[in-house]
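[stage:ingest] chain + small molecule (zinc ion)
[stage:ingest] validated
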Amino acid sequence: MSTDYYELLGVTKEASEGEIKKAFYKKARELHPDVNKAPDAEDRFKELNEAYDVLSDSNKRAQYDRYGKVSGAGGMGGGYQYVDLSDLFGGGFGGMGDLFSTFFGGAAQGRAAVRKEGRDMGVGLRLTLAEVATGTTKEIVYDRLAPCESCSGSGLGEGGSFVDCDNCHGRGRIVTIQHTFLGDMQTQSTCPNCGGTGKTISEPCSDCEGQGRMPDRQKVTIDVPHGIRDGQQLRLHGYGEAGMHGATAGDLIVTVRIEADKKFQREGDNLHTRIEISITQASLGATIAIDGILPKEKVEVNIPAGCQNDQMIRVRNFGLKVFRKESRGDLFVHVTVVIPRKLSKREQELLEELASEFGDSVGGKKRVVDRVRDALS
Ligand SMILES: [Zn+2]
Ligand SMILES: [Zn+2]
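[stage:predict] done
[stage:export] tokens:
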């Protein structure tokens, strides 16, 4: 299926970033499955999202312009990770689709001058142990309700202002009188038109329908300090959902998930690793250089003479750097002594000599090849 992304959004190839964004919002409003009940609305909404995903990213757009397509499954290979919010938070917030329902769900309040604070949002961030060791900078891409650019978050269109609500005449409450056989009953309720504020917007911003915020794809760069723990959270103030009509935005809470490492296991700030040594190294002792956790780091492991299989050697200060400190944990090296599976003739002679020195009785069942070789020599 080859669809022209520009055609889908109804813009020209020369369209600016802003024009693309505007066109996307306009079409998304028409096609959002919550609004549009046509059977193909959902598919078309997905296509539209795909088109916006590509055209709103300058790298992907350049690739699309050149080759007519974007490589990589879902176009996620752009050097940043796109965090699916539903991935970690049990579908509590399901990306762009839900973002639009949140937006449209609140649209009834659009004209109302409600100052509602933005909610906190959560995203997950996957790190490797090597990234934890050095600390790193990551770009996070996520969808949120951001302050509307057209009205700077006020919700006011051109010449718009906050005016007294027609429905309640600025009182915020509505009094209804019911005539019953007991007499007149008076009930008060919150005015649905202004949400109880008594104010509405006379000329709401046409882009955000007076909400002061718009669904938007955001990129934020985050400095991850070294030594961070799995499950630890970093809070970015004001990067959560924007508030209505310029009210305070929520925070973005980034939960760190650390991938298992092939070589090192973490235990707090300490690391554990395993190395293989020969029987001679175990018997006579040796100094072995292994790769450390930091880039290009070499660690000298001193194997004592008479080292036993599974022995653990502690190398101080070669563990992880402590969170926000320069001190380091320790590295614990677990030793596997490898018994040779195959010996050359010379090796065998030397070991037999050693065995006789030890007074050991040796000589297992020989393999056929070895018997043949012995017979020939
Ligand atoms: Zn009212
Ligand atoms: Zn606006």
